[in-house]
Amino acid sequence: MPKEKILVVEDEEDILELVRYNLAKEGYRVACVTSGEQGLREAKEGAPDLILLDLMLPGLDGLDVCRRLKSDPVTSVIPIIMLTAKGEDADIVTGLELGAEDYVTKPFSPRVLLARLKACLRRKRQEEADETGILRVGAFTINPSRHEVWVEDKPAALTATEFRILHFLARRSGWVFSRDQIIRAVKGDDYPVTERSVDVQIAGLRKKLGSSGNSVETVRGVGYRLKE
Asked: Nearest 5°: phi and psi at 178?
């Protein structure tokens, strides 16, 4: 059976060909485009399983592309791995806040890129096969099969990563988890763990949960927990 379809949005021909070659060698179906506008069209029409998205694109840049993809119900569930240059820390944080799954900094090893891509696809498959039981914790109703969260009677528009963090904490409400445990649970063992990235996601999650955001408690010196 053919492997998943990967959309590569990259305007540097050398990098585009390097990525295309290595993905095709692994058996993935690959679609390549060189601009943000083309990337948006291909994401909607080609139904890729994952998108490798360069941030520095001519015209519509990668962050704008990410923002539009994640705000469109048709494409919001497609995982995005950002391809970034050194010194783009602010853009990386913005991309993660917009809902990107991961990032790889140029210059990168094809083996590292493939490992991160496989981990991302593996998480996606696990989520699709995960139990569909609805969780009700405090003010929250969490539906894993539909990736929906309701706070009281109002829906909360969470990114994929924010949803996974809340779902992870809710499955063991009252338990305290370190930042390392949280990032490994929602991203995998091969994700570069940084306190900053976890804190950014938690801050975004709290903001979107409104007055119930304080249910996600900080345990000083340890990590976070969801109040029972």
From this structure: -75, 165
Q: Give the Cα separation of 118 and 78 in Å (integer).
A: 14
- What torsion do the CA atoms of 152, 206, 187, 40 make, to the nearest 10 degrees? 90
Q: Cβ(55)–Cβ(82) under 8 Å?
A: yes
Pairing mode, if any, of strands 50-54 and 5-9?
parallel
Domains delineated in the chain:
5-128 (3.40.50.2300), 135-226 (1.10.10.10)
Alpha carbon dihedral 135, 74, 68, 184, in 10-degree steps, equals 40
Q: What is the DSSP string of 84-138?
A: E-TT-HHHHHHHHHHT--EEEESS--HHHHHHHHHHHHHHHHHHHTS--PPEEET
Strand 29-33: give its sheet, edge to edge: 29-33, 5-9, 50-54, 80-84, 102-105
Structure letter (DSSP) for residue 214:
G
Q: Give counts: helices (H), strands (E), the chain.
A: 8, 12
The 3-state DSSP class for residue 224 equals strand
Q: Tell me: the pLDDT tens digits for 160-210? A: 888 889 988 988 888 888 888 887 777 654 454 466 778 888 999 999 999
Q: What angle do CA 63, 64, 67 make, to 5 degrees?
A: 85
d(CA 66, CA 81): 10
Q: Taking the complete model, does pTM exceed 0.70, yes or no?
A: no
